[in-house]
């Protein structure tokens, strides 16, 4: 089944709202075997909606829209799409009664007059119940089998209706045992996209008929394998085999799959080793601690941390010698090492992580440009450090520095003494 998505709203076109609905729909429907061939965003006016949906119906005959089902004057989705099918609008008394009951129960007063238009629906449509909000969804289909599903634009409501109604209904329309579209993502850290391609060699263009996409981001480069035309069992086997082949080339850079978070992985590893962690952060300003403590159950492993932004704090709270800072500079290997060891001793943890760097936009020099970061890992007195020059703006540099620290902890656990730029205390 080929399908198009039309997301509706001026706020999407203006960039004030990020279109998460289309991404959620694409992921969920691909798992069923529905191929999303085009995604379109249009404004709230009736003509834009009519044109976008009409064009999409002409190409695929199957469209899902989100947005424009609310109570305000700019919610034009239902009448605009009804007109495409030559349908008028009618008042659904069942919806109106439910809306009135909902308002009295939840808000303690009568339904506002403006909300009554949510009970207006296209003639001949199927109502899709919305347990997550006030606007019901609409399914409109013609004699030629062309159909449009209209869903609310509020992401929470859209996701709920997708799971409750849309996915089960579409699943019933698809042939049993038909092809599915599924992906598997291998997550890498601290290796460039071009370097990954070089290491993958012939696999860089695809693996056993599966497409391979490179998705660079602040966490690293994700490698996404996708199978398009196999049944569920063959797809699982193909993805397993392809992932194993990719890992055989770049496994030392792979830290997880799909939505795996490196902070969560490292905390799980620490827990398995009965290890505890403390962090000393300068340029990241607490970002590493935030990532670690965002993981449920982190209190069993993370003891605490210090934001040692000023040099005086590095000396007073972490025991970094002031003379060392004066001689080497705050952004240096010796200072990063002293921070990692100092925080480990201060909190009594088995692991200390230290980060110092220049996040910018100012403060760089020819010897230490903006993005220069030193990260140190102290594993119960065994100290390792690495220097990197990270790309991006201030936020991206800080995030990448925290990710670098987590990845270097992973490397330390693996005892990769020969990692590029990795120095150990003999």
Describe this structure in words.
The protein has three domains: 2-173, Molybdenum Cofactor Biosythetic Enzyme, Chain A (3-Layer(aba) Sandwich), CATH 3.40.980.10; 180-257, Alpha-Beta Plaits (2-Layer Sandwich); 262-424, CinA-like (Maf protein), CATH 3.90.950. Helices cover 40% and strands 25% of the residues. The protein has 14 helices and 18 strands. The strands form four sheets. It has a six-stranded mixed sheet, with helices on both faces. A six-stranded mixed sheet has the order 14-13-15-16-17-18, with helices on both faces. The chain has a four-stranded antiparallel sheet with strand order 10-11-9-12.
User: Any idea how many domains?
Assistant: 3
Stretches where pLDDT is under 50 for at least 5 consecutive residues are none
Assess the beta-strand content as a share of residues.
25-35%
Overall mean confidence score, pLDDT: 93
Q: What is the CATH top level name of the largest domain?
A: Alpha Beta
Determine Rg (CA atoms, Å): 27 Å
Backbone structural class: alpha/beta
What's the CATH H-level superfamily name of the largest domain? MoaB/Mog-like domain
Q: How many DSSP H or I helices?
A: 14
How many beta-strand segments? Answer: 18
Helix content: 25-40%
The appropriate CATH architecture of the largest domain is: 3-Layer(aba) Sandwich
Please give the order of strands in the largest beta sheet: 2-1-3-8-7-6
Question: What is the CATH topology assignment of the largest domain?
Answer: Molybdenum Cofactor Biosythetic Enzyme, Chain A
